[in-house]
Amino acid sequence: MGNRELNNYLKALELLQKLLSANNEPFWANWMQQDMEEWNISESTEHHLHAFGGAGSFNDINLNYGESLGYWKNALLGNLASISYGFAKDRSFVLPDNGSATLDGSVCQKCKNVVINENTITRFLAGKFTPVFIAEYFLTDSYHILLELEKLVLDTRIETSRKELEHEIDQNNAQISSENNAWAPNCGACGGTEKVYWEFSPVLNNRS
Q: pTM of the full predicted structure?
């Protein structure tokens, strides 16, 4: 096993530790710090593996506190955890794939009105572009840029994809709501209560 894979494991742990520490998760930030120390002392990943699985585990962390960057923070957290867990489990290193395949919302069975929340679009874009940024920066000496989400979300590719996405949503006769009402009890168009899950796979998701 080369030093590259080892360094990538420690990179992932370091980024996780800094991300968690900056987002009011001191317990898990300290956990990642211990993971780094145990690797440097004995090359053990057992402690890191114990973070995953079961109620109250690392898998349950949610960094989305209703802020605009919340979905991006969660996407970065999940992708970095995938890298660290993969190495800890079988000493493999794999960059994460694009994580978003579908957009979801609700459709009224009575009037066929389809509603998608704006935050669903943000979640989709975070899932689409976070692996892209990781592919671009993680293997470089500038990997700390991945923590600068305020800057990364200004990437022009995101805005281009957002506009394409909004066009596709319109073509599917769906409405984008700025309020969290896709799953409100009553349809905003006719007042009906027969709303069911609705999803579609945007074409842009398959573009490189």
A: 0.90
